[in-house]
Write a structure and sequence with these properties.
The chain is an all-alpha fold. The protein has 10 helices and 2 strands; from the N terminus they run αααααααβαβαα. The chain has one domain: Rhomboid-like fold, CATH 1.20.1540. The longest helix has 25 residues. About 3% of the residues have low confidence.
Length: 224
């Protein structure tokens, strides 16, 4: 398939859902804009009821899905969406839209399994888990396998991806090897846990990677 004939509709559908959920997570539209400058403007508390927590899972099984589309601040959202679009387009081109959506959820569900297992084994804070990171790490893994030599416009440290639009405006071009970026993102996640900048819920990222690995195994016979 030539690049000119391809449009990553599944990637942009997922992007649109994530952004829409974030917009409607605020009580007032003014709070959405103010949150860019003042972190005191949080998303409305009710939105966390759609996040993942073992005590509410039996009563509300839909949180297995809804938590994957919730972000509680614009930095969380933008970092994840930059990764989703820059890598997702490559992966969707390789496996198709249906398989890409399946991969997104498959990786997210494996992230849930590791999340719940971590809570069972270790004393972790009583927190609600939200975000699409597990899904995106699954996409990142499969991208590194299928098109690891491709160049992607991302920065090795996730939060610094917020600067990537400004880097382009200054005339610099970001061309990072996807396979190398994947390895750095694993190292970054491990460092967050070991240095206690994050928490053990970061292990959900590795659940997403495991989901990507299993999905690759399921997908492989179809590609041969």
């Amino acid at each position: 398939m030539r690049t000119g004939e391809f449009f990553p509709i599944a990637t942009f559908m997922i992007l649109l859902i994530n952004v829409s959920v974030f917009i409607f997570s605020f009580d007032e539209i003014s709070h959405l804009f103010l949150s860019f400058f003042n972190p005191e403007y949080y998303v409305k508390p009710k939105i966390y009821s759609y996040g993942l927590h073992p005590t509410t899972l039996k009563e509300n099984p839909y949180i297995l899905v809804t938590h994957m589309f919730i972000h509680d601040n614009w930095i969380h959202l933008v970092v994840n969406m930059l990764l989703l679009t820059s890598i997702g387009m490559l992966v969707e081109r390789e496996i198709g839209g249906f398989n890409f959506i399946s991969l997104y959820f498959f990786s997210g569900f494996f992230g849930v399994l590791i999340n719940l297992l971590t809570r069972f084994i270790f004393p972790v804070p009583n927190i609600v888990s939200i975000g699409s990171s597990g899904c995106i790490f699954g996409v990142l893994f499969l991208g590194s396998v299928l098109c690891g030599e491709e160049k992607v416009p991302i920065i090795f440290v996730p939060i610094l991806n917020l600067l990537s639009p400004y880097v382009y405006l200054l005339g610099f071009k970001l061309d990072v090897n996807l396979g190398l970026a994947f390895m750095f993102y694993i190292i970054f996640s491990v460092m967050l846990i070991l240095l206690k900048f994050g928490n053990l819920m970061e292990l959900s990222h590795f659940g997403g990677i495991l989901g990507g690995l299993v999905y690759f195994w399921l997908l492989s016979p179809k590609k041969t």
